[in-house]
Amino acid sequence: MDAIVTAGGIPKPEEPLYPQTMGKSKSLLDVAGKPMIQWVLDALRGSARIGRVVVVGLDETSGVTCENKPLDFLPTRGDMLANIEAGARWLIAQNPLAPHIFVASSDIPAITSAMVDWVLDAANDADCDFYYSVVDRTVMEQRFPGSRRSYVRLKDAEVCGADLNVIGARAIVGGSENSLWQKVVEARKSAFKQAQLVGFDMLWLLLTRGATLEYAEREVSKRLGIKGRVLRCPYAEVGMDVDKPFQLEILTKDLETHR
């Protein structure tokens, strides 16, 4: 499966990581002796099931590599969803028959090839449009105490979003201005439009912890008109991204100790 790595984030002066980045890409922050994105590319390199890799948000001058894999670069399109779409369309142009595309964020440096393979193994339905990984709060806090993630509280689970996901090619290139991806892009900055996508009753169930994870998966998929699955990942590293300096410190110490 071909892969996108999103690397377009450049913290602004008012954002927490600006003192560490000073106008440069967050993905190039040094983490235990390597650019943060290089840890992610090394994990992809170690998976025999990952093919071509495209990094969206950097260029060749960044110096990052993905040995023994075709590696390409695209300029940032300004936000994460636009970067994913640009990377997906580029990969589909190279391989029009590919049913799925693997998507990784550049700010999860603790991931390993085994974790990449776990997601690939779990994403085993050729007809599925979207696989979204989550990590249980107990898993995250046991592995990274004090990580202070944001969690969604459901009737039977408390989970945070993770950053290794799989998208069906048809979800990106549906051929219509009313495609799912277009609706998601249009709704990304509007809470009202997001609620319209899944239904206000579903949103209420989520907010009041009235839905189980399985019910939420089934109902959201039905209302969006897609076949989607939640992957309950056993690896906290997949959800441990770097948004704040203390998270950068946690991961730097962890990688210096364990790698």
Q: Percent of residues in beta strands? A: 15-25%
- Tally the helices: what do you get? 11
Task: State the CATH superfamily name.
Answer: Spore Coat Polysaccharide Biosynthesis Protein SpsA, Chain A
Can you tell me the number of structural domains?
1
Please identify the oligomeric state.
Answer: single chain
Architecture in CATH? Alpha-Beta Complex
Within the CATH hierarchy, at the fold level, what is the topology? Spore Coat Polysaccharide Biosynthesis Protein SpsA, Chain A
* Average pLDDT taken over every residue: 88
Can you summarize the main beta sheet?
Answer: 9 strands, mixed
Helix and strand composition category: alpha/beta
String of helices and strands: EHEEHEEHEHEHEEEHHHHHEH
Note the overall shape: globular
The number of E-state strands comes to 11
Brief overview, please?
This protein is an alpha/beta fold. It has one domain: Alpha-Beta Complex (Spore Coat Polysaccharide Biosynthesis Protein SpsA, Chain A), CATH 3.90.550. It has helices at residues 18-21, 36-45, 80-94, 113-122, 137-143, 169-172, 180-187, 191-198, 200-207, 213-224, 245-258; strands at residues 3-6, 30-31, 34-35, 53-56, 71-74, 100-105, 130-136, 152-153, 158-161, 164-168, 228-232.
